[in-house]
Amino acid sequence: METTQQTTSNYRKIVSSTVIFGGAQAVNLIMNAVRGKLVAFLLSSTGMGIMSLLQNAANTIQQLSLLGINISAVRHISQIDKDGQEEVLSASVKIVRILIFATSCLGLLFTLAFSPLMSKISFGTMDYISAFLLLSLAVFFNVMSSGEMAVMQGLRRYKQLAFCSIVPAICGLLISIPIYYFWGVQGIVPAMILSGAIYYAAIRYYSYREPSHLKKPRPSFHTIWTEGQEIIQFGLVMTFGTVVGAITTYALTAFISNVGSVSDVGFYQAANFITMQYISMIFTAMATDFYPRLSALILRKAEAHQLVNQQTEVVLFIVTPLSLLMILTAPLLITVLLTNEFQSIRTIVYFMGLSSIFKALCFPMDYIAYAKGDKKYIMWIETIWGNAKTFSVIALFYYFFGLNGLGYGALCSAVIDVIVSIILTRLRYDFSLSAPVFRLLAVMLTLAAVCFMATFISSTILSYTIMSLATGSCIAYSLIGLNRRLDFKAILQRFRTKGNVSS
Question: Looking at the whole model, is its pTM more than 0.70?
Answer without folding.
Answer: yes
